[in-house]
Design goal:
With 307 residues, the protein is an alpha/beta fold. The protein has one domain: Rossmann fold (3-Layer(aba) Sandwich). Helix content is 50%, strand content 12%. β9 and β10 form a beta hairpin. The chain binds iron/sulfur cluster and zinc ion (2 copies). One zinc ion binds next to α1.
């Protein structure tokens, strides 16, 4: 297998090309920067919050954003500490090491501070698959932390695999409105307190982001969360991997279809949204009900906790 740019030995072949180490690195950065440029994800002078779990994907994203945007933008790393022992505590140490090395300010927000319980404690209070509750809290805290730090955008390291999962999950849940809100920049920016989310890695696969971190010497933990693989997302993730191995390119086709639907229908949904957002009566965050999902979770935990 030879690099398509220089004919040296290649280390990867994907829908983005077949490359040696050096050309893989430069092509990876080129795709990321062209996604940012094409969809106007980062504009000069904006404050960009980077969601940084301390894992390979988010550190690779922070590395590129710090390398190319630090001069004209203010960059802040935000870590959400779910409170998962043996997992997040380790990635937080990695996150601190790299933020210090790259001169990026970091802040940590924990479920313990917001909801009064760590994710490990919540799994004991609420038996069953924890990912739904965890996702509600994480989305809320990412938006809250970005708004608190006056960020214009919140960058996440969602890659092609993650986005293909989102597309399929919304298809199977028959949620067209959520489906067309996906994409490289998502969310409803006209609502007060809402910080748009950007996904510069959306057109790069999980395999490529992992390789990029390795070839750049980013020594991040590759162990998944102990609760990963449970629930609906776990099922969808496995099915997409099977599909991609039998029909290479399927993930990319799912994204292309979603982008096409978005182009066609998002304007009419912005003008006539099915669900109007309000501001949560408890915390002020954008919500579809009087009390947002995260505040509901918080109240539920309070009720379940022994006195
Ligand atoms: S796998 Fe589930 S519990 Fe673990 S961090 Fe992700 S959403 Fe939270
Ligand atoms: Zn090459
Ligand atoms: Zn709320």
């Amino acid at each position: 297998m030879k690099c398509e740019a220089c004919r040296q030995n290649a280390i990867i072949s994907s829908s983005n090309g077949t490359f040696c180490v050096d050309h893989f690195k430069s092509n990876f950065e080129k795709i990321t920067l062209s996604t940012i440029k094409k969809y106007k994800l980062i504009n000069d002078g904006e404050t960009i919050a980077v969601a940084n779990s301390g894992g390979k994907d988010s550190l690779s994203l922070l590395y590129i954003i710090a390398k190319y945007f630090k001069k004209k933008n203010s960059i802040i790393s935000i870590t959400i500490d779910e409170g998962i022992k043996g997992y997040r505590d380790k990635t937080i140490e990695t996150m601190k090491t790299y933020c210090d090395a790259w001169g990026v300010t970091y802040k940590i927000y924990s479920y313990g501070d917001f909801a009064g319980a760590t994710m490990d404690a919540i799994t004991k209070l609420k038996p069953g698959i924890p990912c739904g509750t965890c996702g509600v809290l994480r989305r809320h805290m990412l938006n809250f932390s970005a708004a608190e730090n006056r960020a214009d955008k919140m960058a996440t390291a969602h890659n092609m695999d993650d986005e293909a999962e989102n597309v399929m999950m919304n298809l199977f849940q028959n949620d067209f409105e959520k489906l067309i809100r996906l994409g490289p920049i998502s969310g409803i920016s006209q609502y007060k307190g809402f910080v748009p989310r950007i996904k510069p890695f959306m057109f790069i696969s999980e395999k490529e982001t992992m390789l990029f971190s390795m070839v750049n010497g980013i020594n991040a933990l590759h162990t998944p969360c102990p609760y990963a693989g449970l629930g609906f997302r776990g099922v969808i993730s496995r099915k997409i991997k099977e599909l991609e191995s039998e029909m290479p390119g399927s993930k990319r086709y799912m994204l292309d279809l979603m982008m096409e639907l978005k182009r066609e229908y998002s304007d009419s949904y912005v003008e006539n949204p099915r669900s109007q957002l309000v501001n949560c009566a408890a915390c002020g965050a954008p919500a579809s009900e009087e009390i947002c999902e995260a505040c509901n979770v918080k109240m539920q935990i309070k009720r379940l906790k022994p006195n």
